[in-house]
Amino acid sequence: MIGAIDIGGTKIAVGMVDHKGKVLSRMEAPTDPNRYSDGIELIAHMLRKTSQRAGSPIEGIGIGSTGPVDPMNGEFGDVDFLPGWRGKSPVKDLAQVFSVQVALENDGDAAALAEAGWGAGKNRKRLIYVTVGTGIGGGIVLDGQLYRGVDGAHPEIGHHVVDPAGPKCTCGFRGCWESLAAGPAMVTWVENNAPANYQHRAGISAKRICDLAQQGDSVAVQAVEHEAFYLGLGLANLINLFTPDAIVLSGSVMKSAELFLDRIHNLIRAGCRFVPAEKTKLTLASLGDDTNLIGAARVWHYRFGHGR
Ligand SMILES: [Zn+2]
After folding, report:
1. 212 C-alpha to center of ligand 1: Å?
2. Among candidates 128, 90, 123, 133, which has minimal Cα distance to 109?
3. From ligand 1's centre to the CA of 223, what distance in Å?
4. pLDDT tens digits, residue range 69-97?
5. DSSP helix/strand/coil, 162
6. How far is ligand 1, taken at its centre, from the CA of residue 166, in Å?
């Protein structure tokens, strides 16, 4: 049984995951962005508690974390929203407390490894995992190996530009994929394009837009078409660049994937003529809401558990 830790900007989830990727117990707590030592103590406490509940000792620990992390030395990088965690190594600290091997990866890479090993990407040689929620992230697994950039860097698929005249993004560009196709972009589209008297305008969310589109609301249907167009552009770019066997789609926006998929497929057919795009399967993630936690456990297997 592997102790899994999913560190996000607002919460930390900890759980025990068996060798088939099943979550045996889990708990979560809010992230303290400033005090790292309190955070590590809290994580250690949750590991002990969930291990006790699952009734089995911890054989190893895997961590998936948001933001830039250095998977090789196990340290946090310049994580904007966790300023007190910069340069700290949960890998070293937890290995000391629990006397087991600990591995850390970016959470997009962790989830990609989980879908490749235990989920919808099983038996796919070239797999791209894409999560669309408040942002767009992901990971690339080629022949069972996580794709790493220079110095182990994690590629940012959400920040390839699809419209240079698009909205400004924190990455420095305008109109990158995330700024046009993540959940908040749908909300912005409705705010900018719905008639002034649109009755659902106040406090509308991406999920609400999808629900309304399903009921035939014409503003929401247009927002969904717009969303599908930008989702499709980005996915078509990934297919032209990588010709993967599969793209596994995850995240809160993809819970409404049936609203987008027809238009996405049409776009891919129209714009990926020089590659065998029909052979790239677009498939939904299969590990559910615990993908990131399961991914954290998979990180340990990927690093230390060969042959399992
Ligand atoms: Zn960007």
Report:
1. 28
2. 128
3. 21
4. 899 889 988 877 778 888 999 999 999 99
5. coil
6. 10
